[in-house]
Amino acid sequence: MGNLDDLTQKIREKAKSLLKSGQVEVVIGYRAGTVPLVAAPFFARSPEDCDNLIWSSFARLNLANYLPNRAGKVALVAKGCDARSAVGQVTENQFPRENLYLLGVPCAGLIDPARVAAKEPRPIQSATESDEAITITGAGFSQEIKKAEVLRRNCQTCAHRTPTVSNELTGPETPNAPPDDFSDLKDLLAKTPAERLAYFKDLIKDCLRCYACRNACPLCYCPICFVDETRPQWLGKSTDPMDTMTFHLLRGLHCAGRCTACGTCETACPVNIKVREFNRVLDKSVQENWAYEPGLTWDQKPPLTIYQPNDPADFIK
Amino acid sequence: MSDYLVSEKTLAGFFTALATGRRLLAPQGQGDDCRLAETTGPVSLDYANTHLSPKGVFFPQTEKILAFHKLADKPKANQYQDLGDQAQPTVIFGLRPCDARGLTVSNRVFQNDRFTDPYWKGKYESAIKIGLACLNPSPQCFCAAMGGSPFGEMGLDVLAYPKDQGLGLKALTPAGEEILKKAQAEPADLAADMAALEKKAIQSQGSLDDYATINERKIMELYKADHWAKTAEPCLGCGVCTFFCPTCHCFDIQDEQNEVGGVRMRNWDTCMSPLFTLHGSGHNPRPSKVERVRQRFMHKLKYIPLKQDGVRGCTGCGRCVVMCPANIDIRSVAAVMAQASA
């Protein structure tokens, strides 16, 4: 039995015992998706429900997104980035720590369907996975692809695959990837401001303003997003490029120093925008200025939400 | 109406003829990059479907409908002027039958015995719609389960299909017949060929679930069923389903102005957003995603069929199935609705 099956078994067993003992009211995890390469969010409320829970390298949506405004005790099936997001929500007072049970899953990186499509553009009917590879099948073909070749960008540079904070781990720790050195941003950061603006304009040219990135993001828990406010209305509703850019820039800034690089925004985006590019520039800045990574412990606050006398920036003193 | 053939040799000339005197829109690109775009050919016949539905051709995501200026010394200052339907002579080649059927659903919303929307009407009626039948429906397609067919003819002037490196074409309207004659397509008899290919294509969609009991159930029985909270729970409320749906047609009217003038426009809206139903009073009749998700599926699978002679608001194009970040699959929801007891 492979590690994936072990993790699935362990998640089911633990979920059942948490529900049976009344320790939690719901276990939020993943079920098998109805389309290939997708694991879907699933809310288990009874021991019978728990047999639908799985672990999979298709589990891209960040489940911490379902925590804010939820009453009652919750167990969250959490890979490294999801656990960090949940910790972030607790430290930002969006969810009470005593209501949260983190069922930590040591993650080995998740699959990027776009990279799979780049290797095999024909329509895929089904996909299965082993610990090391996925097998995709379509009309008249079946192909095995090594997972390492089709991991998501953020998973290739994830330094916290195993949750740093959890109530319990479902398996042995997984080896981390070499941390993000932001080397791919070098060209972008060398550009003039005008060139950078052109780069970001091009990046979001297909944006439909569906706000799937925002709605999938565990950081975006505002009761009313600034783009949806009507009295006053801050932003136009059309496909005007300036309004679209304003949304992305403001969302990026709101998330500065809080993003755990979970990639759920890019998973949700229906037009394949590299939404995370906005945040990565800011993440780099936050890491350089405050040596801060969000969601690693219960007692740290995002640097842009606090002030300390030893702040390295001069303008604030 | 007759059938026609375009051979491999005459295919390029056929598309040039289509594009003469009007713009030709046809799918360009592959996979997630496949979109309707202006071309004079060549046209790829090897695509599953356009990433976005074709509704934007007739119902753009943002459409300026009125405009005014503030120049007091010029005539008609500060008065809205109609910008017209902004239609241009168009032929669309390569509409999939699911999408053509979907456009007829919106057409009956925008043009009926009570209302005529001039902006939709001008663009929709001036476009000649040539469909391309699906010989190999995608794994996520389910048009037949929703009452359509990979060779469906609804909403089309011509139905084409790839044949011997060229095209087989069936004229469905006088406008369709005329354009085929002008493009010098060769008369042919394709009925038997098309019937056999249609049967094969429907079979390739696998076992079809039967959602017919939804039609028989009363509205309130479906509405009050106890699954909605569970069905809606994973929903992120993003509205990707509505943006990609070929039949979703709801819009929001907005006015924008600056120092020299302003416009009134309509923009795609989405019933998945709380803002969609928020009243000026602050009251919201669909306060949570449970009501919103219920509305979307009831609209697609119950209200629209009731108002449109049984034609569903879902045509089985599969876009929302593939695109929903939370994998809320309309096939699963329809199956639950078909079974659910009040």
Q: What can you tell me about this protein's structure?
A:
The complex is a heterodimer of chains A (317) and B (342). Chain A has 317 residues and is of the alpha/beta class. Chain A has ten helices and eight strands. Chain A is 30% helix and 13% strand. A five-stranded mixed beta sheet of chain A has the order 2-1-3-4-8. In chain A, strands 5-6-7 form a three-stranded antiparallel beta sheet, with no helix packed on it. In chain A, strand 6 and strand 7 (141-146) form a beta hairpin. In chain A, helix 8 runs parallel beside helix 10. The longest helix of chain A is centred in the first third of the chain and has 18 residues, at 3-20. Chain A is globular, with a radius of gyration of 20 Å. Chain B is α+β, with helices and mostly antiparallel strands and 342 residues long. Chain B folds into two domains: 3-54 and 86-203, no CATH class; 212-339, no CATH class. In chain B, the strands form two sheets. Chain B has an eight-stranded mixed beta sheet. A four-stranded antiparallel beta sheet of chain B has the order 5-4-12-11, with no helix packed on it. Chain B starts with a strand and ends with a helix. The chains are: A alpha/beta (317), B alpha+beta (342). The A-B interface holds A 33-36, 38, 40-43, 61, 65-66, 114, 117, 121, 123-126, 138-139, 208, 210-212, 214-216, 228, 230, 236-240, 264, 267-268, 270-272 and B 30-32, 48, 51, 61-62, 136, 138-140, 230, 233-234, 236-240, 243-244, 252, 254, 256, 265, 267, 270, 273-275, 278, 321-323, 325-327, 329, 331-332.
